[in-house]
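Progress note, sequence design subtask.
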């Protein structure tokens, strides 16, 4: 066991909570929450996906994903269409969401820039490698 192991994981958890709050402060005025942004971002960068694929990618339980997708659909940001397997629908962004995407992205990038103030590119690269290694230990094949 490493000396600061518990502190490391506590710090990661606290950072994630605080960053979600910062993102919400930027996104809520634009009609979106941080958890919804994660789905929108994944759909925009990865294309249409099933609910199961989104849940797996984001590490979110099915009931939580169901509620979040229902809210996104009610807001007019996503649509569901029949896929190859009639039991699973493909989730896609609507034209309305695509038009709003750049505004959301700008708000997110602004929040990220604020948080990354005084952080070097080397720090960022190291953190990406570090997080990737830990994620591989949790989710093999990622």
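Output:
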């Amino acid at each position: 066991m490493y000396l600061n192991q518990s502190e490391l994981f506590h710090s990661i958890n606290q950072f994630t909570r605080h960053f979600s709050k910062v993102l919400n402060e930027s996104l809520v005025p634009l009609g979106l929450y941080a958890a919804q942004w994660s789905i929108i971002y994944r759909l925009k960068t990865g294309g249409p996906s099933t609910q199961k694929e989104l849940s797996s990618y984001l590490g979110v339980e099915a009931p939580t994903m169901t509620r979040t997708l229902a809210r996104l659909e009610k807001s007019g940001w996503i649509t569901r269409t029949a896929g190859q397997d009639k039991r699973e629908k493909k989730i896609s962004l609507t034209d309305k969401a695509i038009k709003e995407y750049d505004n959301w992205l700008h708000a997110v990038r602004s929040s990220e820039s604020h948080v990354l103030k005084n952080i070097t590119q080397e720090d960022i690269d190291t953190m990406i490698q570090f997080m990737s290694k830990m994620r591989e230990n949790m989710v093999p094949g990622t």
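The two ends are 25 Å apart (CA to CA). Work on this subtask will continue into the next period as scheduled.
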